[in-house]
Amino acid sequence: MTLIAEYGTILLILACLFGFFMAWGIGANDVANAMGTSVGSRALTIKQAILIAIVFEFLGAYLAGGSVTQTIRSGILKSDMISPEQMIFGMLASLLAAGTWLFIASMKGWPVSTTHSIIGAVIGFGAVGVSMDAVNWGGVAPIVASWVISPTLSGFVAFLVFMSVHKLILDTEKPFENAKKYVPFYMFAVGFFVTLMTVTKGLKHVGLDLSPLQSFGLAVAVGLLITALGVVLITRVKADPEADKDYHFASVEKIFAVLMIFTACAMAFAHGSNDVANAVGPLAAIVGVLQSGGEVASNSVVPGWVLLLGGIGIVVGLATYGYRVIATIGRHITELTPSRGFAAELATAITVVGASGIGLPISTTHTLVGAVLGVGIARGIGALNLRVIGTIFSSWLITLPAGAGLSIVFFFILRAIFG
Asked: What backbone torsions phi and psi does residue 334 show, to the nearest 5 degrees?
């Protein structure tokens, strides 16, 4: 392979730079999905949200990001139909295209789907740069289906969670006392679901391969630990009769604000585990070709340093530009309180970590917006800002063709430069 022998080091450096740029875009744009509801409901300040996200996005990306990464690399394209040069140029073009589109969207404050961006880019170079047959259309179908299924499912789960909050707490004679009584159970659910789904599906590539019984036991232990910590924090919350005069549930929402800290951590972990694949999947494919001396493998272990690079990129993007999209998603779709934000975040975390576990790269943006809509619908359609929702849907429709178009252009430019 003359290309790899001659330009191997340069191509690897470019792959790392473009992968980092794409991860930066995820941090700048998509992390708002993990943090927007917490900030919008005023449970956390933007600074607190960014600090939480930096820690848990990184942990999710590094510890649980391996499974979905395989789908981005090998589930969309038929590797046996693509030459090593086409794979390298195509994945470089995909990273640069998706990163560029996310940069534009972040400047505008649009919460677009990073999953759409990278999948559109990969399909674009595969269909035009190689051939229509090179795209595994059967593998694309479940991903496309997830764009409908994920917001519907998370919306339904959020609706049920929020209705349970109403029945057990808000619509009772003593909402504050009942909040102290029932919120620990919600805390347990957050710890249990996220741990169970992550451990059973996501941690095998870091050498932690537990039996189902061990996984269940660990999930229960983490759930109980989070519950105990939450109970300590909740006991410090005192009722505020003055605030309750202005808003009947002011004291109750203070308890849910404690709960939002835990759901924000869970959301950030879930988001990192699913969305790091969008940056490191193509990067891992390039590294695989270069390290094997020119073989396009359909499946290989994702190197730990690749996940590390993706995790760092996400953190840098969040710290530098994340605040713009956080404001859009947290404050402009519907009015959020901690109890509503909690329902949306728990539903999104369960949906995203579950999808990450079965290797399905769903859009966190779609999932969260679906959950926020589910909470809004529980209060009546008038609670939704339909104009903002229309703008968000429009930006989603543009994303796929934008990623594909940019990828095709960059693919031919790279091929021309390197011959």
From this structure: -155, 160
* Cα distance between residue 370 and residue 254, in whole Å: 25
Separation of alpha carbons 390 and 376, rounded Å: 15
d(CA 331, CA 40): 5
Q: What is the pLDDT averaged over residues 99-124?
A: 85
The residue type at 121: A
User: CA-based angle 272:266:236, to the nearest 5?
Assistant: 145
Dihedral pair phi/psi, residue 77, rounded to 5°? -115, 150
Long-range contacts of range 226-229, CB-CB < 8 Å, 24 or more positions apart?
226/187, 226/188, 226/190, 226/191, 226/262, 227/184, 227/185, 227/187, 227/188, 227/191
For residues 272 and 59, is the Cβ–Cβ distance under 8 A?
A: yes
Angle formed at CA 23 by CA 410 and CA 309, multiple of 5 degrees = 110
Q: Is the pTM of this model over 0.70?
A: yes
Nearest one of 242, 258, 262, 260 to 250, comparing CA atoms: 242
- The pLDDT tens digits of the residues spanning 180-195 come to 899 899 989 888 877 7
C-alpha 150 chain-centroid distance: 12
Average confidence (pLDDT) over 246-261: 83
Q: Are 27 and 316 in contact (CB under 8 A)?
A: yes
pLDDT band at 215 (very low <50, low <70, confident <90, very high): confident
200: which 2 tokens? 């059973």
Q: Is the dihedral of CA 140, 141, 147, 151 positive or negative?
A: negative
Cβ atoms within 10 Å, residue 210? 14
Confidence at 100, pLDDT banded by 50, 70, 90: very high
The amino acid at residue 377 is: I
Please report which helix (H) or strand (E) contains residue 130, including its range. Answer: none
